[in-house]
Amino acid sequence: MRDAEHQPIETVRLSDRDKRRLVETLDQEADLAPVAREKRSVRATYHAQNVVVTMTPPNGASVPHRVLSRNLSRWGLAFIHGQYVYEGTHCEVMLTTLEREPYAVEGQVLRCRHIGGIMHEVSVRFDEPIELDLFVTLNVDQAQRHALERSDDLAACEPVEVENYPTGLVIDPQPIERKLYGLWLSEIGLRSHEVIGGEHALNLVEREPIDLVLVDWFTSPDRQGNGAALALHLRESGFNGAIIGMSSDDSHPVHQQMVQAGCNTFVAKPFEKPALQAIVEQQLMLAVGPAGPPIVSSQAGVESMQPLIHEFVSSAREQVAGLHKSIRLEDYTQLTRRCLQLKSAAGFGFDTITDLACNVLDTLEIENREFGVLKANVDELIDSLRRLRTE
Question: How far is residue 278's CA from residue 132's CA, in Å, rounded to a whole number?
Fold first, then answer.
């Protein structure tokens, strides 16, 4: 049981009947406002009974409040509160899904307006979008608009510049841990995406090459189930990169289920950055330290070649992922095929890539070749591909 000082404070001290009347009145006012019809974002009625918002003002202590929720969107929550709250106040919002599971999301106060007496309407903007249909049943029009919003969000996250670093994806329901692991991946040399649950992760994997996934056992609530179910779904959908399962539950059944579902390995929380780096290096079979200087095409100044160079550089990330897989599985047929493709790099002004691809092909021709020598040649080729730039 929680200590009394950590019990949520209820500032809207009205009967259930009066609470309903207050929310209904505000909803009717919103429906009559012209701006309400012009809002693109889907806002659904969300009159949940147990919404707790923990507010942390600058230089202040965190205080949980049980609030009277009004509506919910992918990017925020509106609720009634019996106190004024300053804009920018950090919040952790504890929502409840349709499956009656708790779900934490972080954000900050966007606005606070006085509506009468001590009552204020507070709008919180989430740091990351949620999957709205996990929390409310959408009508047909709302579902269609929600799908469009999700597409827009994903499109906005797509990188503009071509970066050929390995890419990691962190799937963790806890905002602080999700951001921490994403930061660590970036610091050890990977591009990083962080998502809260499985549905968003599956959409991202379909749209962009991902080399490695960190997935938490407690990836819930989500319609893909727990982390093992999500790992299995990723494998069944064709994902062949490395999957690292993680959990604060270090029991044998959890470990076994994650590995059986398709995880390459499992790590118990908490862990430190050096431990994560060792696992990432092992799974990618690549020392993912800082990259060397950029490799720019010798024909970058030829205007007619620029579209072709850009296309070659853009394809390098897929080649990197394929080389990782080929050497990890010791699939020398695929490794040979990819190196034969990369021999053409000199035609795009990347003579170094042609030379390194030939080195790998020469090593593959040796009957009693040493795996360590082959791996070193492939690693050198991968490192150079990661450093390709259009200019």
Answer: 37
